[in-house]
Amino acid sequence: MDNKKTAVFLVIFLAILIALMFLRACGIGPWSSVNVKNVKPEPAKPENFVVEKDTNTVEIAAEAVIDPQTVVNAEEEVKPPVELPQEDVKPEPPVTPKPKPADKPKPKPKPVVKTETSKADLPKPAVQKPKREKAAMPVFTNKSGFKPFYVYSDIGTKDNHYSPYGFMGDVNALTVDQGWKVNPQSGISCIKVIYEPANGRVGWAGVYWTEPPNNWGDKGFGFNLAGAERISFWAKGEKGGEVINNFIMGGIQGKECEDSDSRAIGPIELSTEWKQFFVDIEDADLANIIGGFCFTVTKNNNPLGAVFYLDNIVYE
Q1: Which residues, including other chains, have CB under 8 Å from residue 134's CB and lie 6 or more apart?
Q2: Per-residue pLDDT averaged across 251-257, rounded?
Q3: In this structure, are residues 303 and 220 in contact, taking their beta carbons and an 8 Å threshold?
Q4: How far apart, in Å, are the Cα atoms of 54 and each of 51, 60, 72, 238?
Q5: Residue 110 and residue 246: Cα distance in Å, rounded?
Q6: Handedness of CA 225, 308, 276, 170 (dihedral sign)
Q7: Sorting pLDDT into bands at 50, 70 and 90, what band is 143?
Q8: How far apart are CA 117 and CA 60, in angstroms?
Q9: Got the DSSP string for 249-299?
Q10: What is the Rg, in whole angstroms, of the alpha carbon atoms belonging to the chain?
Q11: Is 220 left (phi over 0), alpha (psi -120 to 50) or beta?
Q12: DSSP class per residue in 23-54
């Protein structure tokens, strides 16, 4: 009995095995799928792609390429993703914002303590000396239309004519400064004259303003001043009481080119204030004037000497 059961079981098993082999040969059942595990897909090749192998050409149709993504092994089980163990991460402490420094209180200004100061302690304002403008000259109308012709106006100006180099008498007793800038009558300067009789022996001294310089009639002609009617000039003394013996125009004689005429005024006593003086030359021959201006002083009139000033000497 047991042998019959065994034989029946073997027959059934063989029948099932033959059926399975038949189904596998026909491609039916679970054997129809190809296990493509661990098979790398080949890239798709274009149509009519030619591969040479052993000099034989084989055309492979693009439709015959199996898409590897459509092949799935039915027996392969999908495994869940493996979770890696995580390291213990310590949480960072929360960042506390630093408090902004409070604004420092501004220092209070120190109270100003007023102290009593005397007028002597206060700084004195700088005193600016007013510029001395040229004084308005008295209007003089010359009948012939002669224009003013200066012997001296200011130091260094082109209006000046003649030069004070014709010293006479005690030449060492006289000092003439044409650039004295203290209290001129007008402009920026005047002429300062110092007479020291002790430095001479003759007892008198004088100076001529000549053209050309130091011309005593032997160095050519002077200026033709025809048409001038007067000589105007300003003078004052240092202390007052200074006596000028003469103020002279022309008078240089004895040489080939001597002065054509001369005029003079004096003696004149000076004060400490500027005063204007005139020499009338309206009827004089002014064709050749070498000695344009001159003064003389004497020891008799100024035994202790004299200091005096001249300014704005002009022919009008």
Answers
A1: 186, 187
A2: 92
A3: no
A4: 10, 16, 34, 144
A5: 75
A6: negative
A7: confident
A8: 121
A9: EE---SSTT--S-EEEE--EE--SS-EEEEEE-TTS--S-BSEEEEEEEET
A10: 68
A11: left
A12: HHHHT-SGGGS---TT-PPPPP--TTEEEEET
Residues whose CB falls within 8 Å of the CB of residue 162, separated by 6 or more in sequence, listed in order: 151, 209, 210, 211, 292, 293
CA angle, 10 then 13 then 19, to 5°: 140
Q: What is the pLDDT of residues 1-49, one digit of tens each?
A: 567 777 777 888 888 888 878 777 776 665 554 444 444 555 554 444 4
Walk me through the domains of the chain, giving residue ranges and CATH numbers.
Answer: 152-304 (2.60.120)
pLDDT at 295: 98
The residues, any chain, with a CB within 8 Å of residue 174's CB and separated by 6 or more, are: 167, 193, 194, 195, 196, 205, 206, 207
- Residue 200, pLDDT > 80, answer yes
Average pLDDT over residues 51-72: 43
Query: Per the structure block, which two tokens stand in for 153?
Result: 């106006």
Show Cβ contacts of residue 263 under 8 Å, excluding neighbours closer than 6 positions: 231, 248, 249, 250, 279, 280, 281, 284
Predicted confidence (pLDDT) per residue in 164-176, tens digit: 999 999 999 999 9
pTM above 0.70, yes or no: no
Instruction: Please give the C-alpha separations between residue 301 and each of 126, 193, 197, 267, 297, in angstroms, as whole numbers.
Output: 44, 16, 10, 9, 7
Residues composing the chain: 316
Structure tokens at 138: 């008295």
Asked if residue 237 has pLDDT above 60, the reply is: yes
